[in-house]
């Protein structure tokens, strides 16, 4: 019995995913709850496990394919599907077809009409054959006609050719680990195409007119992926002549000649003296020739990156986004970390970092300016009396924003533990969808990468995001004196439809005052 492996439910508002990486190949044995494949959504990476023990029979969605929730992406043969037979044997067992009825009748006819061998009596063989036959008019003749009728057409035509022998399943090549049969071995044995295409790759091959035989597969089990087709299409010549280079078609049946194809001047860079470009002229920037040159690489965007791009563009298109700046002297926070950090780490088992100060200060500022913690829903403003603060974490696959729930009720140690746990899980691709949903405000620290000044983009539907930057020693005036202090620029990007300039400045000033007197944070919470 074959068991379908389907795309599981991926979380609220997530309807599809992208196949990221198959851990198993067709023909490999799998154990129950063993990870088969990783799926990437626009928020998290999901691992799909084997539902039962058995053998992976086939994969129907290769790396890079988009799949919907509930779609079948593989099939497994259960270990107990065929008692006494291994799954490989069950797959390769080819039933022996019964001999055709016409062939059986022909064989019987040949035996019945075969000339008898002459004996030593010297009698005429034909007469002996006649004497041995039952009399057609007698009862025996009636019985002979009833039991052994000869088909009328069988006696006239030539004897049919014998059926070709079926291939012996024992001759299947076993190139897998542990002398196992792989998908390539089965395809070779059954005469199937040795380069299967995923559905997305097949569609791309049709669109780009690429011959599958000219594509180098990189997917599991020798499958051709969509990326392979696009790579081959980039190296392939253009499907037709360039505009302007097409010859005038000859007249058909003596009719008038077809008019020449129009020449698109924009596609032809000018050469010397404004004439057509010569063979040495470089391709236009952005033209197909330039995009297909050897100095470029075409890589499909990951689902996370596509979703991130959509949300950032949505924020710019929807919100009236504006950014206000201020600066803060980080000396008091740095002094407090230096004095209390070792004891804090010994007592709580986690370092006292900068982010916990900014999260706590942001909660206090959100209480002071509640519209920064609100959002617009149609023509209504939804104010939120809870503080779920998102902390932006950069990973190899893109930016994710896990959410610290009820940050107003957590102490510094709890916040630092949450941030460290989120960072480890984000870089391992182990974050779950619910950990990324429902934030009311976001803090993004570009200073860890050396950013001195930037304007962060809103994380819809939130109305505010705080951008942190590099701490840099700068000269500032203190009590009429110029001194060198560790300063940081702060940037608050906000939706001007709901937050006014006064509210944005009030938020940043409140935040600055708390950070320059960090002891006040303990009194404020």
Largest sheet: 7 strands, mixed
The outline comes out as elongated
What is the CATH first-level class name of the domain at 305-524?
A: Alpha Beta
How many β strands by DSSP?
19
Structural class: alpha+beta
Q: State the separation between the terminal residues, measured CA to CA.
A: 61 Å
Rounded radius of gyration (Å) = 39 Å
Which architecture of the domain at 305-524 would the CATH scheme give at its second level?
2-Layer Sandwich
**For the record, what is the CATH homologous superfamily label of the domain at 305-524?**
Chloramphenicol acetyltransferase-like domain
CATH topology of the domain at 305-524: Chloramphenicol Acetyltransferase
Average the pLDDT over all residues and give the rounded result.
75
Helicity, in percent?
25-40%
Number of H/I helices: 14
In terms of DSSP E residues, the strand content is 15-25%
Low-confidence stretches: 81-134, 236-248, 260-279
Set down the secondary structure blueprint.
Elements: E1 2-6, E2 16-22, E3 29-30, E4 35-40, E5 45-49, E6 54-59, E7 66-68, E8 72-78, H1 87-92, H2 101-113, H3 125-132, H4 139-147, H5 183-190, H6 199-208, H7 226-235, H8 288-291, H9 303-318, E9 321-329, H10 331-348, H11 355-368, E10 375-377, E11 380-382, E12 389-391, E13 393-395, E14 398-400, E15 403-404, H12 412-427, E16 441-445, E17 464-468, E18 472-478, E19 481-495, H13 501-516, H14 519-524
Helix pairs in contact: 6-7, 11-12, 11-13
């Amino acid at each position: 019995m074959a068991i379908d492996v389907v795309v599981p439910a991926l979380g609220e508002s997530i309807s599809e995913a992208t196949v990221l990486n198959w851990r198993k190949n067709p023909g490999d044995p799998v154990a129950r709850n063993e990870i088969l494949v990783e799926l990437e959504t626009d928020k998290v990476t999901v691992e799909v496990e084997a539902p039962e023990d058995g053998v992976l029979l086939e994969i129907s969605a290769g790396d890079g394919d988009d799949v919907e929730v509930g779609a079948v992406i593989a099939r497994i043969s259960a270990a107990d599907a065929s008692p006494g037979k291994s799954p490989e044997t069950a797959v390769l067992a080819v039933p022996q077809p019964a001999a055709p009825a016409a062939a059986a009748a022909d064989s019987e006819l040949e035996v019945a009409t075969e000339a008898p061998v002459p004996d030593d009596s010297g009698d005429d063989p034909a007469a002996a054959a006649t004497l041995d036959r039952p009399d057609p008019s007698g009862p025996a003749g009636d019985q002979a006609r009833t039991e052994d009728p000869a088909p009328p057409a069988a006696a006239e035509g030539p004897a049919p050719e014998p059926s070709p022998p079926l291939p012996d399943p024992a001759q299947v090549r076993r190139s897998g680990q542990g002398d196992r049969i792989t998908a390539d071995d089965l395809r070779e044995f059954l005469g199937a195409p040795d380069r299967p295409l995923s559905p997305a790759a097949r569609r791309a091959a049709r669109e780009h007119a690429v011959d599958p035989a000219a594509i180098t597969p990189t997917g599991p089990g020798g499958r051709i992926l969509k990326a392979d087709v696009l790579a081959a299409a980039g190296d392939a010549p253009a499907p037709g002549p360039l505009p302007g280079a097409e010859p005038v078609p000859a007249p058909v049946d003596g009719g008038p000649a077809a008019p020449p194809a129009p020449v698109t001047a924009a596609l032809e860079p000018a050469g010397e003296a404004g004439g057509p470009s010569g063979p040495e002229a470089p391709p236009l920037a952005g033209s197909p020739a330039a995009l297909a040159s050897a100095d470029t690489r075409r890589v499909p965007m990951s689902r996370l990156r596509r979703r991130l791009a959509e949300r950032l563009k949505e924020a710019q298109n929807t919100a009236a986004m504006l950014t206000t700046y201020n600066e803060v002297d980080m000396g008091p926070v740095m002094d407090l970390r230096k004095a209390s950090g070792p004891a804090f780490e010994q007592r709580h088992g986690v370092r006292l970092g900068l982010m916990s100060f900014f999260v706590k200060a942001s909660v206090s500022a959100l209480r002071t300016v509640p519209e920064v913690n609100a959002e617009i829903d149609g023509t209504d403003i939804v104010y939120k009396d809870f503080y779920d603060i998102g902390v932006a974490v950069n990973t190899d696959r893109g930016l994710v924003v896990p959410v610290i729930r009820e940050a107003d009720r957590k102490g510094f140690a709890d916040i630092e533990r949450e941030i460290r746990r989120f960072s480890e899980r984000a870089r391992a691709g182990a974050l779950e969808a619910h950990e990324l949903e429902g934030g009311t405000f976001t803090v993004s620290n570009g200073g860890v990468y050396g950013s001195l000044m930037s304007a962060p983009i809103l994380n819809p539907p939130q109305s505010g995001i705080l951008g942190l930057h590099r701490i840099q020693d700068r000269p500032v005036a203190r009590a009429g004196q110029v001194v060198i202090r560790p300063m940081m620029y702060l940037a608050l990007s906000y939706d001007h439809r709901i937050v006014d300039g006064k509210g944005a400045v009030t938020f940043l000033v409140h935040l600055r005052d708390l950070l320059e007197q960090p002891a006040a944070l303990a009194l404020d919470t």
